[in-house]
Write a structure and sequence with these properties.
The protein has 426 residues and is an alpha+beta fold. The protein folds into two domains: 117 residues, Roll (SH3 type barrels); 290 residues, Fumarylacetoacetate hydrolase, domain 2. 18% of the residues lie in helices and 27% in strands. The chain contains eleven helices and 26 strands. The strands form seven sheets. Strands 6, 7, 8, 13, 14, 16, 17 and 22 form an eight-stranded mixed beta sheet that branches. Strands 4-3-2-1-5 form a five-stranded antiparallel beta sheet. The termini are far apart. The chain binds calcium ion (CA). Calcium ion binds next to loops.
């Protein structure tokens, strides 16, 4: 094992932090009384990128890109600028000898350090991207099979189109919120068994869905498909995503056009966007696909990513969260490249900042299911939490916390957390 590269910011080097030198995820933060700014996370610190740019320390290609209150301007610059900026930030923050690495400009400048380094504990984090569109896929074979077993035919759980199409639907971008934003339990139409007509009620089967999302980094033109080979140049980075779901509302409304109010009330994402460059060492072989997909969905590159994921639930007042799911992103049947190729093959264009959800990530074992629906078999077999309480679905006051990371040799490239608390229905 070779020792991992370290930073002169000590908290980045403990092997446990989600934000070592190898990660450098982008986000938007603010400190009391000031407007939001773009930053990069390292250890327990945030580096103010507008401050570095003002000091002339960032590449000319990124000049002015960090002046706004979202990442969109920077993302729109495209892959060469992302890679050059990452290289520059790595050099500035590296702990290696200043003669070898260009790190003295920030490390040895106390006035600039004062201005540009902000402790994460003193900052509020905001939605990192202005999201023009949100699409949610359904790409875990295990999840689709589990749901099909419960609601359709146990012997034919997968619909015939599932193995041919990365199934997806157009979701709501307006209600995508950053981690920490509480959401009210939704109200809606619920059709109770043995009743002729639906009732209007607060959701009684409120659920989470463990997902990851990628942020589109390059727009495509209307009418112009993006191939699986070109897809990676169109992806800026990834976030954790909780696709909150009202199962009872969903079950009544989803025929024939898919989910609507059961999904549209809120989607939570993690505040730090981990770049595809940082995830590069964690690419893995694609899962076996049978039948072989149609030509436009075939892929040559390794498009699976090894990301360990965990979900925990913390009731109001409970001293600690209880882990209820452990799984991994690498087993997803349809890859992000295939999702983007499919999304655009009809000629539908995508825009910088668009969010593409993976679909619920479930593994093969009962403790690896990415929703309460699957973990509890539609509420029939509640999970028991550390404080002894039981849950079939989510109760008011419950917080759901998701986390994930890639394990390197002596370091972790992590996503931090996405959390959200359920407030009572209005
Ligand atoms: Ca979903």
């Amino acid at each position: 094992m070779t020792a991992p590269q370290t930073s002169w910011i000590d908290s980045a080097n403990d092997g446990q932090t989600h934000f070592p030198l190898q990660n450098l995820p982008y986000g938007v933060f603010s400190v009391k009384g000031q407007s939001p700014r773009v930053g990069v996370a390292i250890g327990d610190q945030i580096v103010d990128l507008a401050a570095l740019d003002d000091a002339g320390l960032l590449p000319a290609a990124a000049k002015g890109a960090f002046a706004g209150t979202t990442l969109n301007r920077f993302i729109a610059l495209g892959k060469p600028a992302w890679t050059e900026t990452r290289k520059r930030l790595t050099a500035l923050l590296s702990g290696e000898d200043a003669a070898l690495r260009d790190n003295a400009a920030l490390r040895d400048n106390a006035a600039l350090r004062d201005k540009a380094l902000v402790p994460m504990s003193a900052a509020a984090l905001h939605l990192p991207v202005d999201i023009p569109g949100y699409t949610d896929f359904y790409s875990s074979k295990e999840h689709a099979t589990n749901v099909g077993r419960m609601f359709r035919d146990p012997d034919n759980a997968l619909l015939p189109n599932w193995l041919e199409i990365p199934i997806g639907y157009n979701g709501r971008a307006s209600s995508v919120v950053v981690s920490g934003t509480p959401l009210h339990r939704p109200n809606g139409q619920i059709k109770l068994p043995n009743e002729a007509r639906p009732v209007f009620s607060a959701c009684r089967k409120l659920d989470f869905e463990l997902e990851m999302g990628f942020i589109v980094g390059k727009e495509s033109a209307l009418g112009e498909p993006v191939s699986t080979a070109d897809a990676s140049a169109h992806m800026f980075g990834m976030v954790l995503l909780n696709d909150w779901s009202a199962r009872d509302i969903q079950q009544w409304e989803y025929v024939p056009l898919g989910p609507f109010n059961s999904k549209g009330f809120g989607t939570s994402i993690s505040p730090w966007v981990v770049t595809m460059d940082a995830l590069e060492p964690f690419r893995r072989d694609n899962p076996e696909q049978s039948p072989q997909p149609l030509a436009y969905l075939q892929q040559q590159d390794k498009n699976a990513y090894d990301i360990a994921l965990e979900v925990s639930l913390q009731p109001e007042g409970a001293p600690a969260p209880s882990t209820i799911c452990r799984t991994n992103f690498k087993a997803m049947y349809w890859t992000m490249a295939q999702q983007l190729a499919h999304h655009t093959v009809s000629g539908c264009n995508v825009r910088v900042g668009d969010l593409m959800g993976s679909g619920t990530i479930s593994g093969t074992t009962p403790d690896s299911y990415g929703s309460m629906l699957e973990l509890t078999r539609n509420g029939a077999e509640p999970v028991t939490l550390a404080d002894g309480s039981q849950r079939g679905f989510l109760q008011d006051g419950d917080s759901v916390i998701m986390t994930g990371y890639c394990q390197g040799e002596g370091y972790r490239v992590g996503f931090g957390t996405v959390s959200g608390k359920i407030l009572p229905a209005r």
